[in-house]
Amino acid sequence: MYEHDVIVVGGGGAGLRAAIGAHEAGADVAIVTKLHPVRSHTGAAEGGINAALREGDDWELHAYDTVKGGDYITDAPAAETLAQDAPDNVVQLENWGMPFSREEDGRMSQRPFGGLSFPRTTYAGAETGHHLLHTLYEQVVKRGITVYDEWYVTRVAVSDEDDPNDRECYGCVAWDIQTGEIAGFRGREGTILATGGDGQVFDHTTNAVANTADGIAMAYRAGVPIEDMEFVQFHPTTLPSTGVLISEGTRGEGGILYNSEGERLMFEYGYATNDGELASRDVVSRGELTEINEGRGVDDEYVHLDMRHLGEERIMDRLENILHLAEDFEGVDGLENPMPVKPGHHYEMGGVETNEHGQTCIDGLYAVGEVACVSVHGSNRLGGNALPELLVFGARAGKHAAGEDLGEPEIPVGKTADAEGIEESDVDFPVEPGALAASSAAVSGDSPEEIVETAREAETERIERLLEKEEGVNHAEVRSKIQKSMTANVNVFREESAIEDALETIREAREEYQDVYVADTSRTFNTDLQHTIETRNVIDAAETIAMGALAREEFRGAHWRKEHQERRDDEWLKHTMISWNDGTPELWYRPALLEGENQTYEPKERHY
Amino acid sequence: MSTQTPDTDETDPQAERMARKEERAAERDEASSKPDVGDDAITLKVFRYDPEVADKQEPRFDTFHVPREPGITVLDALIYARDTYDSSLTFRHSCRQAVCGSDALFINGSQRLGCQTQVADLNDSDTVRVEPLPHREVVKDLVVDMDHFYDQMDAVEPYFSPTEEPDGEQLQSRENREKIKMSTRCIWCGACMSSCNVAAGDNQYLGPAAINKAYRFYFDEREDDERQEERLQIIEQEHGVWRCQTQFSCTTVCPKDIPLTEHIQELKREAVKSNLKFW
Ligand SMILES: Cc1cc2nc3c(=O)[nH]c(=O)nc-3n(C[C@H](O)[C@H](O)[C@H](O)COP(=O)(O)OP(=O)(O)OC[C@H]3O[C@@H](n4cnc5c(N)ncnc54)[C@H](O)[C@@H]3O)c2cc1C
Ligand code: SF4
Ligand code: FES
């Protein structure tokens, strides 16, 4: 068994920042990650980091934009913490040497982004995430923080009390991809999940192959409620053939969207007559898809994003990476031609329920970054708000796990008896969701070490079973079935019968998964085994997305429902919560918190 | 790395099962060579090796036929082969967009990223030959051990560390940011190191990527002179910049177009200047 004060699962931006935070607070911290840290998908972020750094801007404006962008189910204490802590975190990155783009006077550059009332998106070319990730990793190396790279975490080690709120997390179980060793990791003070997003649930995504919702599924099965999963962001400008992202920065700098008639669609068809291309992402994605569905798409598939008028000099200075991406992944020269773009899966607003210290309802278990739902993005994330989120809440969770006092949290977690305003859901699902047979991630034991050890034994058994099974279904078939169904049925436009179809397909996939086997017999670098384990996580995440999408009978932010074309504040100012409940999932609601430090965020109609 | 191998001589049930699985895998390989994937299918020849699996202990090449889709990349072809024919085919990949640096491979005789290489752009687009990066220890199939590469990166103290902690936002001129811009693009793919003859002969040579990392900090005006001196000392050591024989192979293969050889040359000049100063 490996032992440290704090174990961080994941070496992307969130995990690295959490580890540095814990280290600064004096803890012995280790990162356990399935990819080497610099391979994490944070490196793909392009546009920038929102922070109210400059005169004329302040954190209250940033918080307001965030709550409005989230269509008023963002929790105010989360948005305010984000906005207050972001400036220091960005300056911190600068102090760690991050090569931000610069103004003539030598200060860090900021640019406009969708839904922002001030150009506060701080950037490093169109490759901000790459620089952020490498800068944080450099600081991890500098501090000598231990990194177990290419170790795959399969489960968290949590005790087995009936009520998840009484459970404790003592660490996790991981498997060394290179050697096949399965080991327990004891986190004496805390275990922080920072495993990133769930893009593999869809088949057209800006996410990496490694974004398989591992953390969501592990926390869910351990008893932590999963929040607001139906809020999936579809980014309006992805390359049609691969899903590679063309940054919102392209529109921020002045890029224009045209339909096949050469019309400036955002204005021409009234999708956003004030902000046009820079309306919030959900608005632009729906606009584009409506054009395509109504026959004004190019090749019936996409629209055009034109940046040629910005001129070569400006493009080279601020958007050079966009030229490379369009050239390498779509064969288009953005200086000569407009770039084809269409909406694609991009970001999961929902995730593991946490408070503003990154804590879940299970003592000792934290979640930060895209895997978590604090909730700072509500029903629609503003571009440039995920990177500050992972910095702010990563640092806080790291420090808190290391024992630093951050005060009483304002955001409640867990389905506790005394929690205010909790409601049960009465939604009917076409098929039973959840496990096929009763199952629980909890394990018993008398001491923390024993619990980690029994969890390790259980995982060893699961892995042996997969390896020994001689024939059956290949996980890739199951995964592809989920991806196709989710993309067809739970996409930008959603309707009841389609979501029900998806739930039925997910059920079938679960049944087929019972019969998966791993053809590769080797213990050395067995990616067949890794992907097979990941696919179960993809199934769990897909199911929670579809369940939430069916339950939420309104149109809010990224969640559009054909039968329910209105935002219904009287009934739906609340979060969708799903508890695994040892295999028979329970859906319930918790009210959104709109009470801020100095103001109440009154829901207003969202106009761009 | 584990060296245990399934012992097929004994009648241990697990070993038997493993042997049967391997047989079936071999049958699938066989099936995969039947071209039912269109007349102009791509012939993908992939290096295979696994220290633990009986018939893969001797390195060999497997052939897969992959349908020729417009724009298909070498990584797409590998994924197709794996998901269609043989799920034990092993290679690293993640971002699919040339930023995670996982899939530097030896493709038709040169170091490239699988995801950034379109089959149609290869000199021979009918037969694509994919091997692990040369001069690296092979772990399995296309996966090489990257530890040595990471060690060399660590050796140049790859982190910003001015003598005094900055207080608030530091200013940096646009010119200076531009000066280090290319050097900050490195994605740690290891292509350069694998292409370098000097590195192949001298295991301790820092190599182009690490020296480029040193360049990135050396020329960053936000670090002070004292740090600069220390950085020069690191790259001037026996296995540092002076080893480079300006063959440009690293510069040729770098997927991020970093002018590596130029950067190394520039640091050599800095070292000379600094030595003259102390004469
Ligand atoms: C193309 C693109 C562009 C974007 N641009 C922007 C932008 O401009 N601004 C902005 O604010 N946001 C942007 N975002 C969103 C933002 O980049 C992500 O939300 C954020 O980087 C996620 O960081 P993370 O650390 O949570 O996850 P990741 O960076 O994905 O890291 C996850 C880590 O967890 C590890 N891991 C996962 N599962 C396991 C497991 N089972 N065991 C062990 N380790 C595991 C992985 O190895 C990895 O190290 C963008 C996103 C994309 C996809
Ligand atoms: S310098 Fe270029 S080739 Fe070398 S590791 Fe970096 S990106 Fe790869
Ligand atoms: S898959 Fe990330 S660089 Fe190719």
From TrEMBL, chain A:
One Pfam family in the UniProt entry: FAD_binding_2
PROSITE patterns documented for this protein: FRD_SDH_FAD_BINDING
A single GO molecular function term of this UniProt record: succinate dehydrogenase (quinone) activity
Major subcellular site: membrane
UniProt membrane topology term: Peripheral membrane protein
Record InterPro entries: FAD-dep_OxRdtase_2_FAD-bd, FAD/NAD-bd_sf, FRD_SDH_FAD_BS, Fum_R/Succ_DH_flav-like_C_sf, Fum_Rdtase/Succ_DH_flav-like_C, SdhA/FrdA/AprA, Succ_DH/fumarate_Rdtase_cat_sf
GO CC aspect terms: membrane
UniProt family annotation: Belongs to the FAD-dependent oxidoreductase 2 family. FRD/SDH subfamily.
Protein name: succinate dehydrogenase
Source organism of the structure: Halarchaeum nitratireducens
Automatic annotation (TrEMBL), chain B:
UniProt cross-references to Gene3D superfamilies, sorted A to Z: 3.10.20.30, Alpha-helical ferredoxin (1.10.1060.10)
Location of region: Disordered: 1-39
Transmembrane recorded as keyword: no
Protein's UniProt name: Succinate dehydrogenase
GO terms, molecular function: 2 iron, 2 sulfur cluster binding; 4 iron, 4 sulfur cluster binding; electron transfer activity; metal ion binding; oxidoreductase activity
Family recorded in the similarity comment: Belongs to the succinate dehydrogenase/fumarate reductase iron-sulfur protein family.
Every Succinate dehydogenase/fumarate reductase N-terminal domain range: 43-150
Domain of life of the native organism: Archaea
Needed co-factor(s): [4Fe-4S] cluster; [2Fe-2S] cluster; [3Fe-4S] cluster
Gene Ontology terms: biological process: respiratory electron transport chain; tricarboxylic acid cycle
CDD domains according to UniProt: fer2
Pfam families: Fer2_3, Fer4_8
Skewed-composition ranges (Basic and acidic residues): 14-37
Pathway field: Carbohydrate metabolism; tricarboxylic acid cycle
Sorted UniProt keywords: 2Fe-2S, 4Fe-4S, Iron, Iron-sulfur, Metal-binding, Oxidoreductase
Residue ranges of every copy of the 4Fe-4S ferredoxin-type domain listed in the record: 184-258
Signal peptide: none
